[in-house]
Amino acid sequence: MAFIPAFVFWLATGILLLGFEVVLPGVFLFWIGLAAIGTGLVAWLLPLGFVSQLLVFSIIGMAAIFAGWRIQQFQKKEMTDAPFLNDRAGALVGKIYALETAIISGTGAIRIGDTVWRVAGADTNAGTKVTIVGIDGGTLRVQAVVG
């Protein structure tokens, strides 16, 4: 039986994992595949035993997964041209509207376009201008506009 050098095993494993990444959903195998390729390069440059290769794979794998996680967190924070696309109520915070119905016992309503929203806040008369200060589920929290 022919002996396969360790670096060839790691490089082939890495390429195989990257190939699986193309077929399977997610991005996890990408980082593990990169770790396997990195281990193959280290094994090619340095004569390491099997345990040392596993240690190198573990270290590179953890670093690659952490790097992937950081990249994902950075991408989540990127600004978009439609930041409230799936958060209609979030787009209303800070806006001023007149109460449709008075806030009595902490609950009232405002009309925004063709939608009536439930509001919560201090008791206030209908027609009073209020600022939306937050969201609690499907209820908008409001405060009366001063001045």
Summarize the structure.
The protein is of the alpha+beta class.
Strand order of the largest sheet: 1-2-3-5-4
- What are the segments in which pLDDT stays under 50 over at least 5 consecutive residues? none
Shape: rod-shaped
Largest sheet: 5 strands, mixed, barrel
In sequence order, what are the helices and strands, one letter per element? HHHEEEEE
End-to-end gap: 89 Å
What fraction of residues sit in β-strands? 15-25%
Q: Count helical runs.
A: 3
List descriptors.
147 residues; alpha+beta; 5-stranded mixed beta barrel; 5 strands
What features would you describe in this structure?
The protein has 147 residues and is α+β, with helices and mostly antiparallel strands. It contains three helices and five strands, in the order H-H-H-E-E-E-E-E. It has helices at residues 6-23, 28-45, 50-77, and strands spanning 96-104, 107-112, 115-120, 129-136, 139-144. It has a five-stranded mixed β-barrel with strand order 1-2-3-5-4. A hairpin with a 2-residue loop joins strand 4 and strand 5 (139-144). Helix 1 packs antiparallel against helix 2 and helix 2 crosses helix 3. The chain starts with 5 loop residues before the first helix and ends with a strand.
